[in-house]
Amino acid sequence: MVIILQRKILAAILSCLLYALITVFIWGFLKTLFLNTYFINFIFVITYGIMTSFISDWLGRRISKKMYVREISSFAFHCFFGMIFIFLSLGPAIVFFIVDRLLIKAKIGWLSVIIALLIVVLVFIISIT
């Protein structure tokens, strides 16, 4: 359970960054757009997204033991929970699911999670000054 929590926190940080980069790539790079997209999504994903990702994965495991069906149903639940805030959460929910699945094989410890969180705090402090 702790390993899954570490992976989901790191996936949240990385997926918010990736989603913010995708957003500024589509709309044009503006520092404020990037920072606002990143930090607003970060708040939603850290609080709401991680919790619903646990629920989505749990529901996927309850539906089927077959990996293919389990992953599709988990993805569908991620999208369903992501539809709650539409623009603010559907895109990040899809990116979060992909990043979370890519990190399954990675060895993640608390040190990497803490360093990633410290980088987020440092970028936030720099951006408000």
- Rounded Rg: 15 Å
Strand content: under 5%
Q: Tell me, briefly, the overall form.
A: globular
* Tally of DSSP helical segments: 5
Helix content: over 70%
Entry keywords:
129 residues, 5 helices, 0% strand
Mind explaining what this structure looks like?
By secondary structure, this protein is mostly helical. It is built from five helices and no strands. Helix 2 (31-63) packs across helix 4 and helix 3 runs antiparallel to helix 4.
Brief summary:
With 129 residues, this protein is mainly α. Helices cover 83% and strands 0% of the residues.
What is the secondary structure topology, with strand pairs?
Blueprint: H1 2-27, H2 31-63, H3 67-82, H4 90-102, H5 110-128
Helix pairs in contact: 1-2, 1-4, 1-5, 2-3, 2-4, 3-4
